[in-house]
Amino acid sequence: MSEKIIVFDTTLRDGEQSPGASLNINEKLEIAKQLAILGVDVIEAGFPISSPGDFEAVKNVAKNVKGPIICGLARALEKDIDAAYNAVKGSGRPRIHVFLATSNIHMKYKLKKAEDEILKLAAWAVKYAKSRCGDIEFSPEDASRTERDFLHRVVEAVIAAGAATVNIPDTVGYSTPFEFASIIKGIKDNVPNIGKAVISVHCHNDLGLGVSNSLAAVLNGARQVECTINGLGERAGNASLEEIVMAIRTRTDIFKGISTGINTKELYKTSRLVSKLTGMPVQPNKAIIGSNAFAHEAGIHQDGVLKERITYEIMRPEDVGFESSNIVLGKHSGRHAFTERLRKLGFNLNKEQIDKAFGSFKAIADKKKEVFDEDLETIVDEEISKIPEKFHLLHFYIASGDQVKPTAKISLKFEAKEMDASSTGDGPVDACYKAIDKITGTKGSLLDYQIRSVTSGKDALGEVSVKIESKARIVSGRGASTDIIEASIKAYLSAVNKL
Ligand code: KIV
Ligand code: ZN
């Protein structure tokens, strides 16, 4: 009989704690809906007490996303637990996740409390949360650096108080697979009431071992894994969902009788969506969903794959949602072929959205001979999920070269008015951004600027991602065009419009 691993996705909570990865309420909902399609069992939608915005975002997800359990995080405090409950109670399946640190380091320096106090507080918090919500998870924060006997006592106490899931976090990504496996086994062997709860794990990636530690725990009895899309998360991130899921699916010889409910064909699309909305690009060599994950460069490898795929491929690209197509669209392609291709790529657009995307496709097809699937995805991402534009680009003009001071003139539309400004800069992009700042009154700094080519070829679409900080907020933006200056302007404007 197959045993199912509960996939607990914390992209919207721990993932959003990645520096610069903040998401607005609509973006969180869009990702949560895609996570439900992907088939995750639990969505940790946020930390409701942390800000009014996060409270509203969790509430919005709880109200509008059906299927998965919707979970809110809380410290062991009445006000946190109340906020978490009020945010998730609109879900048909609400959960409160309470955490309290248990390691000597955290108890001594952060909480300034002794073991007995922590034990009592943990049990009280779970009991209080349980009086409000039927489904309670408890995490002894920094569990991997917690003294083992104390960890066992805390786990026993919170289960007795009503926790149905006990989550063992490697909060600082310090553990290693053998050690983490023995922590999980120790809990199984030494906590008398462990049979009444699901053991969960939550591994950070500071030593690059988040996935390995999670998998070692699964082999030793953990039945819930906490993870994030693209491995996003605090510092070096959390264990990556796609890597855990595909390891379990690919190595059935090792994970005997174990499976997840994830629809793996949705992995690539989910990864792209999260990358786009958080502004965190996926490195090309990222396992499972990186653009090079299935690309064979060495001649000997290409030869092998052509003779027999399994010589160098342990998974099929289509199993994780990489769709390859021989059909390349161009400027003579009609709406039917375009719509059909989008449907195959997994986009279900309404008529108005198709009209918009088709318009952009035609404009790009005029500049570019062949429009590939990656181009189409970028066009749709750009056109369809655009946030309302307060400032809209009308025209731009740049002068640049090694003998002239780079200069830009930008015209934007704002509330039906055309507004212009010019500026010089260190380069053409800098000049454009300074001109935009003059028009929009943006005062901030550019934290990150990245450019990538969506496909190969001299006429490829360039996609720019930026991150800007203004008034203590960090927002990201993306833009694409066959002209990289235009892509840079669009990316910056999309971030400014978010602000
Ligand atoms: O890393 C951690 O310990 C956490 C807890 C809140 C589970 O994120
Ligand atoms: Zn964490």
Would you kindly provide a written description of the structure presented here, covering whatever features stand out?
There is one protein chain. The chain has 499 residues and is α/β, with parallel strands linked by helices. The protein has 3 domains: 3-278, Aldolase class I (TIM Barrel, Alpha-Beta Barrel), CATH 3.20.20.70; 295-385, no CATH class; 391-498, Alpha-isopropylmalate synthase LeuA, regulatory domain (Double Stranded RNA Binding Domain), CATH 3.30.160.270. It has helices at residues 25-38, 52-64, 78-88, 104-111, 115-132, 148-161, 177-190, 210-219, 241-250, 267-278, 299-307, 335-344, 351-367, 373-384, 428-440, 484-498, and strands spanning 3-9, 42-46, 69-75, 94-101, 136-141, 165-170, 198-203, 224-227, 258-260, 391-399, 407-414, 417-424, 445-453, 462-470, 473-481. The strands form 3 sheets. It has an 8-stranded parallel barrel with strand order 1-2-3-4-5-6-7-8, surrounded by 7 helices. Strand 5, helix 6 (148-161) and strand 6 (165-170) form a beta-alpha-beta unit. The longest helix has 18 residues, at 115-132. The chain is globular and about 75 Å long. The chain binds 3-methyl-2-oxobutanoic acid and zinc ion. Zinc ion binds next to loops.
